[in-house]
């Protein structure tokens, strides 16, 4: 399978999740391309249509906000270029001390659903770093990879999510 991961990370937590997802796919024998959201120009955006599965990952900012670089990416990919993504997956990191925990994840799922892009499974919300529980990310990724291969689509984006809270 050909996989792309588009992510946005300020202090490295979301990048760690992206790298765990990448490692899980590589272990399965898949080809993976990692993109930082602010590096997505027209050419990269168009190329996302060629992947079997495209992950979008982001931290949440300033009282529940999706960061600008990820907003710009969604605007370019979905609204401006109307790129037909085959299947997508959404993950993010946040902090439970904020009222809108990982709200950026819900916003990304909303944008995808608005443009009719199927999700390969439930969204993944991680509290801070995935370092203590990497297996949660691995299991989620393996499940979504299987769904993507089998063409199992999750249509109701709002209902399903996996939340991973810090244990220490
Ligand atoms: C100013 C500021 C505002 C934040 N607002 C939220 C928020 O509203 N909801 C949330 O879940 N996390 C919030 N966070 C926490 C970050 O999303 C969290 O630390 C995340 O793991 C950072 O990801 P990164 O390391 O990939 O940049 C905020 C952090 C900062 C510094």
β-sheet strand percentage: 15-25%
End-to-end separation in angstroms reads 35 Å
Do you know the CATH architecture? 3-Layer(aba) Sandwich
Count structural domains: 1
Summarize the main sheet. Answer: 6 strands, parallel
Q: Which ligands are bound?
A: flavin mononucleotide
Shape: globular
Name of the CATH class = Alpha Beta
Average per-residue pLDDT, rounded, comes to 93
Task: Identify low-pLDDT runs.
Answer: none
Question: Which structural class matches the secondary elements?
Answer: alpha/beta
CATH superfamily: Flavodoxin domain
Discrete helix count: 5
Give the tally of β-strands.
6
Sequence of secondary-structure elements: EHEHEHEHEHE
| Helix content estimate | 25-40%
The main sheet orders its strands as 2-1-3-4-5-6
Here the CATH topology equals: Rossmann fold
Give the secondary structure arrangement, pairings included.
Blueprint: E1 2-8, H1 13-28, E2 31-36, H2 42-47, E3 53-59, H3 68-80, E4 88-94, H4 103-114, E5 123-127, H5 134-150, E6 161-164
Parallel strand pairs: 1-2, 1-3, 3-4, 4-5, 5-6
Helix pairs in contact: 1-5
The structure holds flavin mononucleotide.
């Amino acid at each position: 399978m050909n996989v792309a991961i588009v992510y946005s990370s300020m202090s490295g937590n979301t990048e760690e999740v992206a790298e765990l997802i990448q490692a899980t796919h590589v272990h399965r024998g898949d080809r993976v391309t990692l993109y930082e959201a602010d590096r997505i120009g027209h050419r990269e955006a168009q190329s996302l249509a060629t992947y079997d599965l495209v992950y979008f990952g982001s931290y949440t900012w300033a009282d529940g906000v999706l960061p600008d670089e990820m907003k710009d990416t969604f605007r370019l990919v979905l609204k401006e270029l109307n790129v037909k993504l085959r299947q997508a997956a959404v993950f993010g990191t946040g902090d439970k001390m904020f009222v809108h925990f990982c709200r950026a994840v819900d916003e990304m799922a909303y944008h995808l659903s608005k443009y009719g892009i199927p999700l390969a499974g439930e969204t993944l919300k991680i509290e801070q770093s995935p370092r203590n529980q990497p297996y949660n990310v691995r299991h989620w990724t393996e499940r979504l990879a299987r769904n993507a291969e089998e063409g199992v689509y999750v249509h109701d984006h709002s209902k399903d999510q996996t939340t991973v809270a810090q244990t220490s």
